[in-house]
Amino acid sequence: MSAEGFLEAKNVVFSYVNESEEPPVKNEVLHGVSLSVKKGEFVAVLGHNGSGKSTLAKCFNAINIPDSGTVTVAGMSTADEEKLLEIRKTAGMVFQNPDNQIVATIVEEDCAFALENLGVEPSEIRRRVDEALKTVGMYEYRMHAPHKLSGGQKQRVAIAGILAMKPDCILLDEPTAMLDPRGRKEVMETIKRLNAEQGVTIVLITHYMEEAAQAKRVVVIDGGNILMDGTPREIFPQVEKLKSIGLDVPQATELVWRLRQRGYDLPADIITEEECAEAVFGLFKKSSRERVL
Amino acid sequence: MLKDITLGQFFPGSSPIHKMDARFKLILTVAFIVMLFMAKNKWGLLIGAVFTLMTFLISRIPFTMMWKSIKPIIPLVMFTAVLNLFFVKTGEELFKWKFILITDEGLDTAIFMVSRIVLLIVGSSLLTYTTSPIDLTDAIERLLSPLKRFGVPVHALAMMMTIALRFIPTLLEETDKIMNAQKARGSELDTGSFRDKVKGMIPIFIPLFVSSFRRAEELATAMECRCYHGGEGRTRMKQLHITYIDWIGCIYMAIFIAGVVAANIIIQS
Amino acid sequence: MAVIKTEDLTYVYGEKTPFRHVALDKVNIEINEGEIVGVIGHTGSGKSTLIQHFNGLLNPTSGRVLVDGEDFFKDKKKLREVRFKVGLVFQYPEYQLFEETVAKDIAYGPKNMGLDSDEIDRRVKESARLVGLTDEQLKSSPFDLSGGQKRRAAIAGVMAMEPKVLILDEPASGLDPRGREQIFGMIKQYHEERGGTVLIVSHSMEDIARYADRILVMNSGKVFCFDKPPEVFRRSAELESVGLAVPQITRIINRLNEMGCDLPADVYTVKYAEGLIAERLGAARKNMGV
User: Subunits with at least 3 CB pairs below 8 A relative to chain C?
Assistant: First the structure.
């Protein structure tokens, strides 16, 4: 298996079918999407609600099987039923609502769920569960009841449940949408650490621009097509284009963009507050130097 | 808050009773219940009472919990007592006023029946006090597993129980939220006629059903993503270990059984 | 006059149990008629407990809540009246929809108020217009609407009660940027047309900063501060120390000030920051010209 195209979607067309209507109504959500994600990448997928971003993520986990086109995970086609468990073990998925993905009444039991399903040896499960819980910082809570945890903690338990399978990739479908700022931070830090320290490939679906700015690559989906694909520095400065499809940009980027519109000389590809402050400071210094001269 | 309720009244601890294998506890509890019904006289029940007290002491469950488990069945206990007290007409007369007649036999039976119910409840509540719901579910699944051969979906049933236990607090909390939301729109839940009350439940039940279905659907997807494919080839992280404590438990129970049987025989002869 | 006033409002969860928790600790605030108040604080700060006192869903452990100068807890009959006076939209309100049609669902509150059908009809139409639902959507089942539309339908259900005070708990949570914009735009328009008092509870300083006249910051059951946005954001360092995320733009300006630029500390919108920086640079240019 080469490092190229660890997750690979080629001309994927997918539609949801509403069976309750007569005749069944077909609603095409993805219109021929192609996307390739390399092993170890941290990709953020942006798009407004209904843009098809979650649908695409579910294709990589073999929950959605494309109408046409192919999706492969580490070379395995999602259409191949024999490979189903192997695919889900390789590319685990974390969902938006932390409550609706925790199965057991005790944190460590929940974390063990996937491994139990895979028929792993009990002692090995124990070892991996402890390790996964330690990785997400929830080991002290291993005997707690999930419903008494905070949103951020629940979501970390859900991540640990996937992590225990030792996946090469984790797909996260708006994992922070229902969390408060503190929980959001907890989850983002966990994700970033997994990517940086353990080389886990991350596909993060979000509509928080600050989160997307922390990724190494940003893919923008609109109307079931890939609209933009590049580094955060390449994507966010396109403020008008992003706003036109109902997305936002980090405030740092917006400030720089607005100042540039006024004719001030600033680098366009600013995405963090540090860079923004530096750049504006540079501007002040230059103008005061001019003043002195 | 509804969220804070504890389910299954599990009382964590590290007593020998807590450490026993849930399967053994379950079987021994059943044996205990059977023996209570086998006891033919008050001596048998007295042994049962001593046995229950001792077990409570060993388990280090506070005695207040014993009262807590009896409290909900007080009406039943009273009913049994009254029934036996007034309707057993044989034996020597103790008290008579108009049509009310209380005999010594009636009193005896009333005490006997009441003690039996109380012992039954207190004894079996020890099982739920010392065993976590998940261990209990697990034990039931394993004990029933021979039934799989007859097509009983044992694993599915156990899974359902686990999920129910997991989601009861979540759904209670949700009910709380929906009730508050409808109250804020002026619904009157606690006033009006019975019909009004039933009608008042609709704005709560429909959203609750809708959200439960949504949760179920999402949970099913999440379970599939974690490679769930039924009970086949499944292993468990927690192995139920049979230790010497379990065998001691069996001996302990055997002594009790012997005591009851002896009481039955000796008094008879 | 203050439309809502609290006097030493204290609320304790689980009194006399090991879980005892003081959710509100001697809160004294006054909310004026016609203002938009943003309520901010992290989870567990007491903000949700506080707003549930305003329409009588929770009963103070001690202290008083006055709505329109009246202490409604004294009189059980008044309790319901208060619920109509202070409309409360909970977080994820779309989960409370239950009727066959959107119109019927919106009518639920007004119906409970005992209004006649003409009036109910008028209110349903009026609030549907305010939240941007079409006549056709009014006739459809609430469960056929999209997520954002459901949310708006639920908000319309509370607006239709024409409360004096409208409280919204995290009205935009879980929505994408466009959805957020729509919801807040709609609230703003409602406020302009009706002129009522609006309370918005949110985690997002960015959103609150843009719409609120005053901001109430709660921290561990106490009022941390209650002031106009510039005054609140002037204390951004303190806000961050209690775990609240101030807008990124505020942090950028703070950083510039640390570097030695002498900018006002009360910046909380990008537009304001832009103007400020441009003015500073422009001033420099003008000086040069002189």
Answer: A, B
Q: Look at residue C3 and tell me if it is in a domain.
A: no
What is the residue extent of each domain of chain A?
Answer: 7-249, 250-293
Clarify whether residues C38 and C178 are in a common domain: yes
How many domains does chain C divide into?
Answer: 2
Name the minimum distance, in Å, from the CA of B167 to any CA of chain A: 9
Search chain B and give the residue with CA nearest C166. Answer: B184
Residue C20 lies in a domain: no
Bridge partners, residue A9, by sequence: A35, A71
Q: Let me know: does A220 contact A228? Beta carbons within 8 Å.
A: yes
C-alpha of C134 from chain center: 25
Closest to C252 measured CA to CA, from A235, A209, A278: A278
User: What residues in chain A have their Cβ under 8 A from chain C's Cβ atoms?
Assistant: 48-50, 96, 150-151, 177-178, 180-183, 207, 209-210, 246-248, 250-252, 254-255, 258-259, 262, 264, 273-274, 276-277, 280-281, 283-284, 287-288, 290-291
Contacts with B210 from chain C: Cβ below 8 Å:
95, 98, 143
Let me know whether B153 and B119 are in one domain: no
**Which bin fits A137, alpha (ψ -120 to 50), beta or left (φ > 0)?**
left
Q: Which residues of B touch A92 (CB under 8 A)?
A: 225-226
Q: Helices in chain A by DSSP H: which ranges? A: 53-59, 84-90, 107-117, 122-135, 151-163, 181-198, 209-212, 232-235, 239-244, 251-261, 273-292
Q: Which of B202, B203, B210 sits opposite C143 (nearest CB)?
A: B210
Q: Which two tokens stand for residue C254?
A: 């703070």
> What average pLDDT does this structure show over A179-193?
92
Q: Does A206 touch chain B (CB under 8 A)?
A: no
**pLDDT tens readout for residues C126-173:** 999 999 999 999 999 999 998 889 999 999 999 999 999 999 999 998
Q: Cβ separation of A103 and B223 shorter than 8 Å?
A: yes
- Beta strand A42-46 with A217-222 is parallel
Range of the domain at B158: 145-225
Half-sphere exposure of B39 (CA within 13 A, CB side): 28
Can you tell me the ipTM of this complex? 0.89
The phi, psi pair for A49, rounded to 5°, reads: -60, 135
H or E element that contains C236: helix C236-241
Angle at A182 between CA A178 and CA A184, to 5 degrees: 45
Nearest CA in chain A to C268: A251
Cα–Cα dist B31/B38, whole Å: 10
Instruction: Say if residues B264 and B44 touch (Cβ distance below 8 Å).
Output: yes
- The answer to whether residues B250 and B192 belong to one domain is no
Residue range of the domain that includes C138: 34-61+70-239
Residues of B in contact with C52 (CB under 8 A): 180
Q: Are C98 and B206 in contact (CB under 8 A)?
A: yes
pLDDT tens digits, one per residue of B78-126: 998 888 888 877 777 777 777 777 888 888 888 888 999 999 988 888 8
d(CA B218, CA A178): 15
CATH node for A7-249: 3.40.50.300
**CB spacing of B222 vs A116 below 8 angstroms:** no
Q: Which sign does the torsion angle of CA B208, B214, B216, B222 carry? A: negative
- Closest Cα of chain B to C7: distance in Å? 23
If you compute the radius of gyration of chain B from its CA atoms, what whole number of angstroms results?
A: 24
Query: Is B228 in Cβ contact with A88 (below 8 Å)?
Result: no
Q: How many domains does chain B have?
A: 2
Rounded average pLDDT over C248-256: 91
Instruction: Point out the residue among C13, C90, C161 whose CB comes nearest to the CB of B180.
Output: C90
pLDDT in tens, C233-246: 888 888 888 878 78
Q: Are residues C133 and C215 in the same domain?
A: yes
